[in-house]
Amino acid sequence: MPRRNGRAAKYDRPSTTEMSFDIEPGTPIVSLRGVGKSFREGERRHPILESVDLDVTAGSFVAVLGRSGAGKSTLLNLISGIDIPDTGEIIVGGTPLHAIDERERSLFRRRRIGFVFQFFNLLPTLTVEENVLLPMQLNRLDAGPAAARALLESVGLGDRHASFPDRLSGGEQQRVAIARALAGDPAIILADEPTGNLDADTGRDVLELLESMVRHGGKTLLVATHSHEVARGADRVVRIRDHRLVDVSRDEL
């Protein structure tokens, strides 16, 4: 292929490598109870999230609204197991992320969670095809370049498989990022400001593509955003306000 220059687990639970993750649509796939997270600066404690409760049903699209610095990224990091809460419980697909160690959380995240970031986070030394193929290889899926190319075809970039990321526009890079997020066949897609680095028209196209592909695959989508336009397409909208989550009605969007 072308190249260029915790917390220890003490919890009765299924193994993250054995768990089926088959959850009926309409039942919770993500549950947070009393979750709190803060950071310290010297002697001062700065709360980010406090007493957060949230249920996300399987197969749904949930938008998390909030201003910059409100804690949207922190919430996604907690749901993915990148970070652990100071207080409370987080259960994703039956796995208690608050109670398993860092290695188990890493394996869980790699096999069950797909990410789409504002700044794409593609590996610049890998081709577009290789960026999509990498999650398949890490998860030891029985899939090769043809599977990666099929995903690229589905996002309209089949003819760019041999290109490197810096040869693509921002919108094209985000399409590759969507294909990569789906490559490991995760149950949940977490998107952190996926349109924030794109112009309005391109962002709208990318969001429609992401939503279509996630819904078509029966996956669950959580999008952190400050955009009401993005939130209008969601099944449910919540807002981070004063470190807590509150539901947002359609009339507020």
Description:
By secondary structure, this protein is of the alpha/beta class. The protein has a single domain (58-86, 99-252), classed as Rossmann fold (3-Layer(aba) Sandwich). Helices cover 30% and strands 26% of the residues. It has 7 helices and 10 strands. It has helices at residues 72-80, 102-112, 128-138, 145-154, 170-183, 200-216, 228-231; strands spanning 28-41, 44-57, 61-65, 87-92, 95-96, 113-117, 188-192, 220-225, 236-241, 244-247. The strands form 2 sheets. Strands 6-7-8-3-9-10 form a 6-stranded mixed beta sheet, sandwiched between helices. Helix 6 links the parallel strand 7 and strand 8 (220-225). The longest helix is centred in the C-terminal third of the chain and has 17 residues, at 200-216. It starts with 27 loop residues before the first strand and ends in a 6-residue tail after the last strand. The model is unreliable at 1-20 (pLDDT under 50).
